[in-house]
Specification:
Length: 502
């Protein structure tokens, strides 16, 4: 992960220490202008990248031009979902990008990218514990020392001039009625709004967040490898010994084989179920418990196939593990099929979309575990690739308009449109928000007399126009919906004009 180190920009330590407090104040002012009391939107994207620029300016290390461009590009790419819409997934991905840039500018990025998840974990652990430390008190003690590198040294030079200037101004107001009238005409009520409790609290939260990024630290993890290694022989001879692992894998494969055969027969093959059990019940009851089963199986595999353990040394145990992982992957695919069949009957919801994504991630994780065993990689390699799959999934989900997709799916598969399934749940589409307006229009084209859906559509339009149209709250998703509504209004006006002329 190293880039070229030439040419470089160098900063002196003294100027850098003075630059951070000034930049912190500037970023707090920008956060107040962009974020405070504003709907989230483009402002989050702008502030994220402004923080990135600030981190690069205050870097304690010499940064080359390629490295600077890499950090800026990385931040821009990970914050793109915030341009689409301000979702929690986009915010999480952009915060991940800021954390990586913070580590990079401080020289804490590991040389091997597979160690990056552990580095981020240490950064988050240290950040969560820092407010409970006494660093602020020690910083206050240092600031009282006569040092040219402290903020106090620069501020105390203004005490005498400002104090005497205030006194002279008061005397001049007493002696000159023009000055007194001018001072009395100044309206200071805006200060009550500027220094409101919520605003000051917002400043403090932003300052705390920025201070963690400007001064990143990694938590030192305790090393107990010798103690754990000493306990491994006893552990291997007991719960996770070769005999225990062999028996466990034989029993587990037999149990999973029963479930796999049942799914192949009734779920994939379409065989008739016994009396009293419907396909809907069969598909619905198995989706979520099977995911928990797969997660427990993954945890067992990681313990059983630890480095230099009995499972790593025995070809028979490795073969049984491979078979069990394959059955777990089949289990995940069956869970996805169960969910798909259930959605076809009972429509789509955000929770069911999340469940489908989660099932896919579990299947990918199991496949990566299998690769880790076959390629004899470390657990750090496994964690790195699993984390990358999770980040890619969050990034893609942040760019997709899931409420609009769900609304279109439910309208297309409703009984009124497709002739099968369940009736359209218009109230749920209303809960999805204005993103479901195009889907409702499609529904109204086929059933224009449905007054309930038309009323919900009008309420969603009003809700959309009530959304703040300030430039700081702009998103591409809202812009697309604005363009769609304007187009539909023009078509409606043209239709009424033709009807009137006719």
């Amino acid at each position: 992960m190293r880039l070229s180190d030439a040419p470089t920009f160098s900063t002196k330590p003294a100027s850098n220490s003075n630059r951070k407090p000034l930049l912190l104040i500037l970023l707090i002012i920008l956060a107040d202008i962009l974020l405070f009391d504003r709907d989230p939107g483009l402002n989050l994207f702008l502030f994220t990248n402004l923080v990135t620029v600030g981190l690069l300016i205050c870097s304690r290390r010499r940064l080359s031009i390629p490295r600077i461009l890499a950090f800026v590009s990385f931040s821009l790419i990970l914050s793109v979902p915030l341009v689409e819409t301000a979702s929690w997934m986009g915010i999480a991905v952009s915060l991940l990008g800021l954390s990586c840039v913070s580590l990079g500018t401080a020289g804490l990025i590991p040389r091997q990218w597979s160690h990056l998840p552990l580095g981020l974990l240490r950064l988050f652990l240290e950040a969560s514990m820092r407010p409970f430390r006494h660093s602020s008190y020690r910083w206050l003690q240092r600031s009282q020392k006569p040092s040219s590198q402290t903020v106090w040294h620069h501020l105390r030079g203004w005490i005498v001039p400002l104090g005497f200037a205030a006194g002279f101004l008061a005397l001049f107001a007493m002696a000159n009625p023009l000055i007194d009238k001018t001072l009395r005409s100044i309206d200071l009520t805006f200060l009550s709004q500027l220094f409101s409790v919520w605003r000051v609290g917002f400043w403090l939260l932003v300052a705390a967040f920025l201070s963690l990024l400007l001064r990143p630290r990694l938590k030192r993890l305790p090393t107990r490898r010798n103690k754990i290694a000493a306990n491994f022989p006893a552990l291997e001879e007991g719960v996770f010994g070769r005999a225990a692992l062999l028996r466990s894998l034989v029993v587990f494969n037999a149990l999973f084989a029963v479930e796999t055969l049942l799914d192949l027969a009734y779920l994939w093959g379409g065989a008739n179920l016994p009396d009293g059990i419907s396909h809907a019940e069969y598909t619905h009851r198995g989706a979520y418990p099977l995911m928990i089963t797969a997660l427990l199986a993954a945890a067992f595999v990681l313990v059983a196939m630890r480095r230099n353990g009995p499972g790593d040394k025995s070809a028979l145990l490795r073969g049984l593990v491979h078979l069990w992982i394959a059955q777990n992957i089949m289990l995940c695919l069956s869970s996805i099929l169960r969910l798909d069949l259930y959605v076809e009957v009972y429509s789509l919801t955000e929770l069911r979309v999340a469940a489908g994504i989660w099932m896919g991630l579990v299947a990918v994780g199991l496949f990566l575990i299998l690769l880790r065993i076959l390629l004899r990689r470390s657990n750090e390699w496994l964690i790195a690739f699993t984390s990358a799959a999770l980040v890619i999934t969050l990034y893609a989900a942040a760019l997709i308009d899931l409420p609009a997709f769900i609304a279109r799916f439910n309208v297309a598969h409703s009984r009124e449109i497709s002739g099968s399934g369940i009736p359209l749940d218009a109230n749920y589409l209303a809960a999805l928000g204005p993103a479901s307006i195009p889907a409702l229009d499609t529904y109204l084209v086929s059933l224009p007399a449905d007054t309930t859906v038309r009323r919900i559509r009008e309420e969603l339009v009003w809700r959309h126009f009530e959304h703040s149209h300030d430039w700081r709250s702009w998103t591409y998703r809202v812009e697309r919906l604005d363009a769609y509504l304007n187009k539909m209004q023009l078509l409606q006006d043209e239709a009424e004009t033709k009807k009137t002329d006719g």
